[in-house]
Amino acid sequence: MKADAFALLELPRRASLSVEEVRSAFQRRGAVLHPDGTGNDERAQRTEDFTALNEAHAILGSLPRRLRHLLELEYPRVAAAKAGAVMDGEMMTLFSMVGGAVQLAASVQARKVKASTALSRAMLAGEEIQAQEKLEAATEQVETVRESLEAELMELDALRESGGDAAGRLQSCAARAGFLEKWQAQLRGAFAGFFGG
């Protein structure tokens, strides 16, 4: 079994931790465990402890990784089953929206790169604006669904604290969080194509 990232950062086992809570716990624990804070005789152990602390921060700082880790800790049989993720109607609609926006952006960017004159690049300006608007709309929708998921995590924590079986819901939330994180990265990459180079 993996080390308990929640225990390493001295945080409660909750699905609904904020980025600020995780960062603050990492900074607090990091100040105590940093290898530079001791003499050479303890440096090797502190380096090992700090490496584990960094990994715990990476796990809890990523929503899908945090949820999968919580599933592994509290429902190991369910986590080991590794059931395939099923998208509901809302997630399928969002998948199509993100995919369409990213594909349109890639198409416009490819034609812009091939455009050999200022006039031909200017003729793509309308399509470029349309692609950017679709990326913005998809980004907003992903963020809305993510906010809804984060609200659901508070309900999930309440269910777990009351002794209810939350394994299925936790597994579903982990899968949805994974999709949302992937789509956010795709949308950022598509924006970077317009604004980063």
Instruction: Report the radius of gyration as a whole number of Å.
Output: 22 Å
- Total beta strands: 0
The string of secondary-structure elements, in order, is HHHHHHHHH
Q: Class by helix and strand content?
A: mainly alpha
Number of helices: 9
Average pLDDT level: 89
Q: Please summarize the sheet with the most strands.
A: none
Shape: flat
**Oligomerization status of the protein chains:** single chain
Briefly summarize what is shown.
With 197 residues, the chain is mainly α.
Q: Please, could you describe this protein's structure?
A:
The protein has 197 residues and is mostly helical. It has nine helices and no strands. It has helices at residues 5-8, 19-33, 40-61, 63-74, 76-81, 89-114, 118-122, 125-161, 167-195. Helix 6 runs parallel beside helix 9 and helix 8 (125-161) runs antiparallel to helix 9 (167-195).
List keywords for this structure.
79% helix, mainly alpha, 197 residues
How is the secondary structure organized here?
Layout: H1 5-8, H2 19-33, H3 40-61, H4 63-74, H5 76-81, H6 89-114, H7 118-122, H8 125-161, H9 167-195
Helix pairs in contact: 2-3, 3-4, 4-9, 6-8, 6-9, 8-9
